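User: structure tokens for HTH araC/xylS-type domain-containing protein, please.
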Amino acid sequence: MSQSSIFQKTNIFQTLQDYDCFVTDEDKIEKLINAFENNISKTCCALICQNSNEELTYAAPYIRILYVLQGTIRITIDSKLVEYSAGCFIIANPVTQIFYSELEDNTEVMTLLFKKDFFDLFYTNQIIDYPLFYDFIQFVISEEQTKSNYFFFQCDPQDDTRYLALILLKEILSQKNSAQKKVVRAAFLLLIAELDRIKNETLILKESIIPSNMLVGEILKYMNLNYAVASLQSLSDIFHLHPNYISGLIKENTGKLFSQHLAEIRLKQATYLLTNTNLSIEKISEMIGYMDKGYFFKLFKKHFDCSPRKYRINHENQQTCK
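Assistant: Done. Predicted tokens:
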């Protein structure tokens, strides 16, 4: 097979040409997947499809990562038709059906497959700092899933995610022993850490299927980090969902209104600033997002049964408001 154009520009990956990972038709893909299924010592595998003239409909009951290295593909995912170009990642659970066809010459699509055994307890705990991915993996390994769950990320095809995806591909293909398995896991962790870092700019929620409790977790995390400016409209802009939908989602999953969550987060930060800084109460009110000092006073007193000033004095005297 002729050398893949995507690697002609990157000498470090020339060795990939020595691996039997480039495929052009579904028959060879199915043979690779069957071999993977029957090899109990392998927990992950990789392939690159290039210049295919047919729609690929093969089944792959594993956690799957698709990455468009170059070109454009048309994807049918759970009967929904979309088109994506180089830089697109799709991360899907085992029950998600994905069909795709290549729309341009020299299109190359990387596929990475992971069995549940790849994610043992010790390794999964290392992913806990990335809640979106941690929850996704936990759903897969701890439950008998019957519903699709997948993410779309549209990244810059020349950013760090490309390099990290290729590193992961290379390590999977060269894996021969337990020591190399640790390297594969490290490479996987680096990739999801980078995707997590840039998810606000690259995660396409309107075309992803995410369990509502996972989505609410991401929304609340954003609110905790951006409490001073958070609003239903800002959440709508970030997560590409209608403000009313976000409001209903929060209420359905937490039993509280958006405004209640935001007030609790802001007031918690206010108590920290009152007891750990000498900032004026007016300044604290502005810092946590309340430009109307009177409203802040009223809300604070309703919640803590005393004024902000009294709360600060009582803390200094090791007393409580009530």
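User: Anything notable?

Assistant: The mean pLDDT is 85.
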